[in-house]
Amino acid sequence: MELEELRGLVLSERESGRLVPLPPEVYENTHKVLSSLTRQVYATEDPFSDDARCLIEHVSSIRATLEDLFRIRSEKILLLAETQIEADVPDREEIRKMLPPEQEMYEDILLSIRRARSTLVGGSETLPHPAHTPDREDTATSVGPGPCYPDNRQPQFRYRAVRVLAGMDPFMGIDGRIYHLHEDDIVTIPERNADVLVERNIVLNINLNK
């Protein structure tokens, strides 16, 4: 899912007091877009070029928007769980709007509250964790917008400790992480990025074993 579509969903969630129905594959499709953009970043010869910077900013914007969507919906789901505990009546219409992982989170919240109430208010008795609930679907969707690697592979990277000689704008390392460098910081960054920054006199290699 592209950034503008994602922002539209976030805006709808913010303006509505209830959950907004989401496309079932919203997270999966967004991760595919992130994967494609990340491959383009990896293919850029100069990771600090204007083209690479634009791609990195686009990736960061998509991840931040995806995080906003998850946060807003999680707050609504928490409120729904609290309301059900008090009224003891589930809002089935709202539950149907949840994605399977959101339904799982909702049921886990309900169970945790009931267990705590049973222990603290009713005594030491606790409730067992159900093995399965009829309303929960047996599918899973990745929710977190963490590092996105091409072809779902997580490559091994070599890192190097460096001292920052001059601060610079945030950038995405070849490992998919965003790095913020400030003058006189001592940080560990991927070797490929370190080599480029050393050539530009932005960082200095150091040996932490001395």
Explain this structure.
With 210 residues, the protein is mainly alpha-helical. It folds into 2 domains: 3-120, Methane Monooxygenase Hydroxylase, Chain G, domain 1 (Up-down Bundle); 156-205, Ribosomal Protein L9, domain 1 (3-Layer(aba) Sandwich). 50% of the residues lie in helices and 9% in strands. It contains 6 helices and 5 strands, in the order αααααββββαβ. It has helices spanning 3-15, 26-43, 50-87, 92-96, 100-120, 191-199, and strands spanning 159-164, 171-172, 178-179, 186-190, 203-205. The chain has a 3-stranded antiparallel beta sheet with strand order 4-1-5, covered by helices on one side. It has a two-stranded antiparallel sheet with strand order 2-3. Helix 1 (3-15) runs parallel beside helix 3, helix 2 (26-43) packs antiparallel against helix 3 and helix 3 (50-87) packs across helix 5. The protein is elongated. The N and C termini lie far apart (49 Å). Residues 125-154 have low confidence and may be disordered.
Strand order of the largest sheet: 4-1-5
Distance between the termini: 49 Å
Secondary-structure element sequence? HHHHHEEEEHE
What is the overall shape? elongated
Which segments are poorly predicted (pLDDT under 50) over 5 or more consecutive residues?
Answer: 125-154
